[in-house]
Amino acid sequence: MDSFPVVKNILLLDSEGKRVAVKYYSDDWPTNTAKLAFEKSLFAKTMKSNARTEAEITMFDSNIVLYKFVQDLHFYVTGGEDENELILAAVLQGFFDSISLLLRSNVDKREALENLDLIFLCLDEIVERGMILETDANVIAGKVAVNSMDPSAPLSEQTIGQALATAREHLTRTLFQ
Amino acid sequence: MAQPLVKKDDDRDDEAEYSPFLGIEKGAVLQEARVFNDPQLDPRRCSQVITKLLYLLNQGDSFTKVEATEVFFSVTKLFQSKDLGLRRMVYLIIKELSPSADEVIIVTSSLMKDMNSKTDMYRANAIRVLCRITDGTLLTQIERYLKQAIVDKNPVVASAALVSGIHLLQTNPEIVKRWSNEVQEAVQSRAALVQFHALALLQQIRQNDRLAVSKLVTSLTRGTVRSPLAQCLLIRYTSQVIRESNTQTGDRPFYDFLESCLRHKAEMVIFEAARAITELSGVTSRELTPAITVLQLFLSSSKPVLRFAAVRTLNKVALTHPMAVTNCNIDMESLISDQNRSIATLAITTLLKTGNESSVDRLMKQITNFMSDIADEFKIVVVEAIRSLCLKFPLKYRSLMNFLSNILREEGGFEYKKAIVDSIVILIRDIPEAKESGLLHLCEFIEDCEFTYLSTQILHFLGIEGPKTTDPSKYIRYIYNRVHLENATVRAASVSTLAKFGAMVDALKPRIFVLLRRCIFDSDDEVRDRATLYLNTLGGDGEVVETDKDVKIFLFGDLDIPLVNLETSLKNYEPSEEPFDIDSVPKEVKSQPLVEKKAPGKKPAGLGAPPAGPPSTVDAYERLLSSIPEFSNFGKLFKSSSPVELTEAETEYAVNVVKHIFDRHVVFQYNCINTIPEQLLENVSVIVDASEAEDFTEVTSKPVRSLPYDTPGQTFVAFEKPDGITAVGKFSNMLRFIVKEVDPSTGEAEEDGVEDEYQLEDLEVVAADYMMKVGVSNFRNAWESMGEDFERVDEYGLGPRESLAEAVSAVINLLGMQPCEGTEAVATNSRSHTCLLSGVFLGNVRVLVRLQFGIEGSRDVAMKLAVRSEDEAVGDAIHEIVSCS
After folding, report:
1. Which residues form the domain of B136?
2. pLDDT of residue A153
3. Which of B126, B344, B465, B480 is in Cβ range 3.0-4.6 Å of B115 for a Cys bridge?
């Protein structure tokens, strides 16, 4: 057993098993080909299961994989075979819920791609090189959706578009509270 | 009307396929990245371009070195913008581009500025980025800021520094270890995640200091731990302390803490504690009970993750403490129908491990329904569980064998079928009553088997087991059918099997001859050759004679030669009057290089021809020795040991020795390397003092003329010993040589040298040197065919031992024999063990050994040693080896 919980990868795939966003933290899959092969067989193995109400779990290639689906999005978290399943479940839950918060009502592939920057930031806030950073979805989403402007920046630097974006993000923030 | 409707559907499909990244192309995005250089930055547009770059990388596109550098340089310009969102994207892309050391310098000052910013988000992210891309030299510059950050009042900043510390510990341990005080302070943090990260880092820093970890655990188990994650860590470190404390008597320290964690409010903590308790070494059933109880509750949870975690842990417990798990059997049975097939399979195999004899039939019925709707990989697990169940309850073989034969008839892939066939074969071997029905099931299977490998395996097995049954004739039909219906490989295997029946069962001989003669007209060479060969060896020209013992050995004996060696020997054989002699093939597999240590990349320059590569196989040793005239009359080389180091690593002269054993001689081959560039050694020899090895007399030695720097050389010393006696003894060695100074600039040695000596470590010849590791594929067969004629059995007390496994491996090493069928592995917690060994003793005598170990009292190990060999004296010699040590 590792001396602290280690996450090997976090995957967000679409309903055909294609990548929306993925992040690998382990050297188990050294090449992109190896990663794609893992995603393909994992998707084939899990696509038929019903992981929509509760997260599901399986053993796969001496790894433990937890997964949950919503609409056309498939969320996966992988850990070593000796890992505490419930810790990995907490990571998956944090990932799933924070994405749901960030995409608001529309949690589907299209919305995810349109806000891909938020998804990348979200992955960055959950795990750093295998070590769990945060599992509380509210905290994760809050960190991702911070006010876009540095308060010290001069107002003149803001364009109309930025002002609108700031407004939108401000709205997001108020929605979380 | 239908037409427009379809069209509308098409439109909607197009819409569903819409993606902001549709048709995205690397070249175009790299062009777009030029906006990073604009004097008036548009943060939103820049963020979008970075997202596109990240998208490309995430999809597996890769940038060339030039492209990555270009992007990196333009990204660094974005530090000018004060837009928070853009800055975050800049952090992300820098991490993804993983810049090289000379590029890192460009962003270092910007990142260091951010590290000291008032904005928490800047500080936290700048720390993570900088620690990710930095190397050791920069780390000393920023160390002060990192120490501050660890105790920062903002938890995100503190966590960023702590997590970075965990990763930096791998590359720069001495620096991170200096942060102990700050980390210690952070362990007391009120922020849940900071405590978790600090605890993980502190344990990593102190992992080699048992006492410190123990202290840490002691103080924390009394204090408050805020997050479930940190509590899980504490449980892990507590069990580590328990493992290392190794107390044998009285209450286990910290058990109460683990038990109290079973009542924690977070499920992950409850589970971590339950699992830790089940994994305690030598756990008692009293200690297990509370853990099993919480796991049992999890079994009926609505969450698949909880059910899975619980049943997987119970499955492991069932291996060592089946009785403790039986309370959960009812819950487990209801899991057989679980939607999640991983859970169902785990439940089944656990039940198979804990079930008693009376529940077997009911279980089998449930499993039969279950098998049809799970994947092959799960089925294999079930088959293996059923096999061990059958070995546990041999009386139930009928229903279990029926189950196996039923699933053998159903659809399935190769691995699955192989698992079934292997199980049936093992049951036939171990349960005599199951033999006849098992063989018939296998016969039926090969009637319709699509896997050549399995057919040939089964035919081979039939040839060995079939003739020993009461009515061998009933198998002939199945076997002969193969000759008509199958491919050449299977046909050839069938011919061999038929011949085996002919050899063993005299009554069947005439009929077998008829069948074999028909095979002479087969279309395949191999099949015809085999048929002709067997007809000749069995005396198929009409005479019904008792089969010769030699023929039986030829048909049934093991090919006790490694195939690699046979292949090399056959390749070296040149067609001549002299037939190929199979006895000339070396029996020992070894490919250990003679000289292992060689300074890498330190080749002597200008020394002319490269040094002759050290011979690396037994074959090569033999060639080397036979090329030396002094040793040419020693006869055939029996065995060469692996090299034994006679010097410490990193000394002036590196020497190791290989012991070559002949019937009446022993040759020591000293492999020497001179590791001093300024020296040339001449007339190098080893002076051996054999006063503690009475049976040996030195006959000759062969020095090395010259030993330049870093070029291996070999010197030999040969001893005579009484024929056939396994003489043992201790030899002390002294390296003697003439040393000459070498001018490093010219590489020329001086004229005059000085005589010098160098003490080497002692060398021993032990009994195991006379034994060759030669395995057998089927120990039981070999044991039976060796017969009881020269069996020697005796019992020994081995005294107190560390563990059973340690005792087993000590005896294996003492005898120097090859463990067979994986019997060298001892199950943890078992109190008895049987180990099967095979080898060839000096004089080419086959030896088989059966060792039975048992623990008496707390640690005393007793051993029963049974030896069978072709020579009575060898059996005695083996016992002598054991009793003398």
Report:
1. 99-207
2. 44
3. B126
Do residues B628 and B757 share a domain?
Answer: yes
Min Cα distance A123 → chain B (Å) is 10
Here the CATH number for the domain that contains residue B746 is: 2.60.40.1480
User: Do the domain assignments include residue B494?
Assistant: no
Residue B373: which of B338, B346, B332 has the closest Cα?
Answer: B338
Contact A110 B19 (CB under 8 A): yes
Polymer length in residues for chain B: 885
At B593, the pLDDT band (50, 70, 90 cuts) reads very low
pLDDT tens digits, B29-82:
999 999 999 988 899 999 999 999 999 999 999 899 999 999 999 999 999 998
User: Chain A interface, mutation test: which of B21, B48, B51, most A Cβ atoms within 10 Å?
Assistant: B51
Count structural domains, chain B.
3
B751 and B638 in one domain?
Answer: yes
B805: in domain: yes
The two tokens of residue B91 are: 């952090």
Helix B376-392 to helix B414-430 angle (10° resolution) is: 0
**To the nearest whole number, what is the mean pLDDT of chain B?**
84
Q: Do B83 and A1 touch (CB under 8 A)?
A: no
At residue B168's C-alpha, the angle toward residues B163 and B170, to 5°, is: 115
The CA distance from B606 to B667, in Å, is: 34
- What is the CATH number for B138? 1.25.10.10
Which chain B residue's Cα is nearest to A129?
Answer: B167
For an interface test with B, give the residue of A128, A144, A159, A162 to mutate (most B CBs within 10 A).
Answer: A128
Same domain, B858 and B756: no
What residue of A is the nearest CA neighbor of B22? Answer: A113
Residue partners of B541: CB distance under 8 A and separation at least 6:
B535
Least CB–CB distance from A128: residue in B60, B128, B228: B128
Looking at the domain A7-150, which fold is it? Beta-Lactamase (3.30.450)
User: How does pLDDT run across B412-458, given as a tens digit for each residue?
Assistant: 888 889 999 999 998 888 888 888 889 999 999 988 888 999 999 99
**Residue B282 in domain:** no
B294 CB neighbours in chain A (<8 A) are none
Q: What is the pTM (predicted TM-score) of this model? A: 0.64
Q: B266: closest CA among B203, B196, B210?
A: B196
pLDDT tens column, B467-488: 888 888 889 889 888 888 888 8
Question: The CATH number of the domain where B855 resides is what?
Answer: 3.30.310.10
